[in-house]
Amino acid sequence: MNMLKLAVNGAAGRVGIRILTCAQQDPNVGVVGALEGPDSPAIGKTIGELIGQAAGGATVVSDLATAVQDAHCVIDFSHHTSSIERLEQAAALGKALVVGTTGYTVEERARLLSLSTQVPLVWAANYSTGVNLLFYLVEKVADVLREGYDIEIVEQHHRFKTDAPSGTALRIAEVIANVLDRDLKDVARYGRHGETGMRSQEEIGISSIRAGDCVGTHTVYFGTMGEQLELTHRASSRDTFAQGALRAAKFAVASPPGLYDMQAVLGLNAE
């Protein structure tokens, strides 16, 4: 494939705009479609206008068939209530999928996962290379420390984020729970208030902060009597997510149908 042709759903969003910008800087990538909801003020604008340049490039539309017609892959950073139907339509057209949307319900997750039988689907809570290395390191640390360490996850994001905890924080908790053979739905503790009593040895605490323009910070604490180990990742630019999504798209179009995460994209699953 000489040129990877992309369509972006959620093109006018914070990450969507960075994907468009980073794609323009990659000579091997071309954005041939840009999607937004029918009521979005971005409808009718060109990609150039979205990223603060002269008018030019694909026009933002709400019709999926029009946007993805010439695309090899659809990258989705939108809202869970609207993305599933569009992803199903794109899969029916044989397009590879890269999904960064979070906040899916159980039913929506099931519908999304079923698409991996039709097309290659990369689905990750976070597309940052550093965050995915954090997932890898957290798994190793939890496996070594095992019992006797209290585990807490604290995440911070900008004031505009609508879901909590972040998908990344939940993924960190899932990784730890899987390593320690715990059922996350039974041991997760989301914030604390009032007379909570002493924490249990099994619980995994997850807390959320929403303030200012923070792109994303995640810290995992492993604490025991006498010492504490902290692993922290801080994102200072959404370009890290955009570059990761582009890397995932290149991986997806070269892969057979199936479900993949960024660990697979980065080759960490082979470790």
Your description of this structure?
The structure is a single chain. This protein is α/β, with parallel strands linked by helices and 271 residues long. 35% of the residues lie in helices and 24% in strands. Strands 3-2-1-4-5-6-12 form a seven-stranded parallel sheet, sandwiched between helices. The chain has a five-stranded mixed sheet with strand order 8-9-7-10-11. Helix 6 (129-145) packs parallel to helix 7 (167-179). The two termini are 28 Å apart. The mean pLDDT is 94.
Provide keyphrases for this structure.
single chain, 271 residues, alpha/beta, five-stranded mixed β-sheet, 10 helices, 12 strands, elongated
Give a short overview:
The chain has 271 residues and is of the alpha/beta class. It is built from ten helices and twelve strands. It has helices spanning 14-24, 47-50, 64-68, 80-92, 106-114, 129-145, 167-179, 184-187, 239-253, 262-265, and strands at 4-9, 29-35, 60-61, 73-76, 96-99, 120-123, 150-157, 188-190, 204-210, 216-224, 227-235, 258-260.
